[in-house]
Write a sequence for this structure.
């Protein structure tokens, strides 16, 4: 069997790194950093997820096909969230075109 | 171990090919799961950007320390699952059974803590639609935040429960000596599923418990 066997020490190292990152993100949660709370929390979550995918889920040692499928899943997720937000976050940008003034911006969804 | 288990199923050339096929299969399933949870995450993101203050108020009613502890418990269960795969790869039958059972214990602990949190929400009248009457003034869309909280954590908990069932089957198979270093695809595949459920929680924790600083 050519299958790669990861040494348990690697698993323990990943585990402790994940615990430390959980501690950091929780500690940051007790401070109000405005928008940066979201940025820091998501950045740490992405780091943790990457560690789990690469080592616990063995993607670092797997062939090209599983990696492609994983990236495909993330790509469609990015489309789903990205394109939805492109609509949602830009709705307030433009005033309504002429002739549509009867609907005030407050009434628009 | 019965010899027949070390032989590839008849549609495969060899065990290696069978292993690659099952690995690809579980990754395709994980991709559909990303989409499945993705819808909820998208809805969450839309309403969070729209009613941020309500989401902050709702998030601050959760027990952050309990949530962080539960995250650690689930990460611990991922460690024992990874060690179970290692035990299967190296042919350590007893260690495999022990690590699978440890994974089940940690998984059940996570669910226990989660349900105790649900009970607290019920006591505090924070069940949207059924029993929503928090004390004092609260922003109007806080109920929406709790709808997302329950929908997302319950879907995650359902995946945990399914995972526990799969693990129970694995324990039985492992105890009967069904796995060997050459042939243990079910352990690897269910391991990948378990880690995926862990990843979903890794994102749910900051998105639900860490909205705005406290």
């Amino acid at each position: 069997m050519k299958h790669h066997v990861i040494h348990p020490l690697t698993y323990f190292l990943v585990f402790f790194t994940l615990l430390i990152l959980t501690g950091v993100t929780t500690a940051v949660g007790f401070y109000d950093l405005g928008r940066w709370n979201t940025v820091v929390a998501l950045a740490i979550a992405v780091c943790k997820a990457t560690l789990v995918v690469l080592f616990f889920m063995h993607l670092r040692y797997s062939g090209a096909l599983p990696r492609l499928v994983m990236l495909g899943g993330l790509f469609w997720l990015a489309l789903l969230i990205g394109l939805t937000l492109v609509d949602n976050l830009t709705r307030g940008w433009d005033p309504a075109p002429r002739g549509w003034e009867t609907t005030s911006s407050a009434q628009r969804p | 171990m019965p010899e027949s288990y070390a032989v590839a199923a008849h549609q495969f050339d060899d065990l290696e090919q069978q292993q690659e096929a099952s690995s690809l299969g579980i990754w395709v399933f994980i991709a559909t799961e990303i989409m499945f949870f993705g819808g909820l995450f998208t809805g969450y993101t839309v309403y969070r950007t729209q009613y941020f203050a309500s989401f902050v108020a709702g998030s601050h009613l959760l027990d952050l320390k309990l949530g962080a502890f539960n995250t650690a418990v689930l990460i611990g269960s991922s460690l024992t699952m990874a060690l179970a795969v290692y035990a299967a790869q190296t042919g350590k039958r007893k260690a495999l059974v022990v690590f699978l059972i440890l994974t089940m214990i940690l998984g059940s602990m996570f669910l226990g803590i989660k349900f105790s949190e649900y009970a607290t929400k019920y006591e505090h009248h924070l069940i949207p639609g059924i029993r929503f009457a928090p004390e004092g003034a609260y922003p109007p869309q806080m109920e929406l935040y709790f709808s997302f909280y329950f929908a997302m954590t319950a879907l995650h908990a359902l995946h945990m429960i399914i995972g526990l069932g799969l693990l129970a089957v694995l324990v039985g198979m492992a105890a009967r000596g069904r796995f060997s270093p050459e042939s243990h695809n079910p352990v690897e595949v269910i391991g990948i599923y378990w880690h995926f459920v862990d990843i979903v929680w890794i994102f749910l924790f900051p998105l639900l418990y860490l909205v705005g600083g406290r």
Notes: Chain B touches chain A through 56 residues (CB under 8 Å).
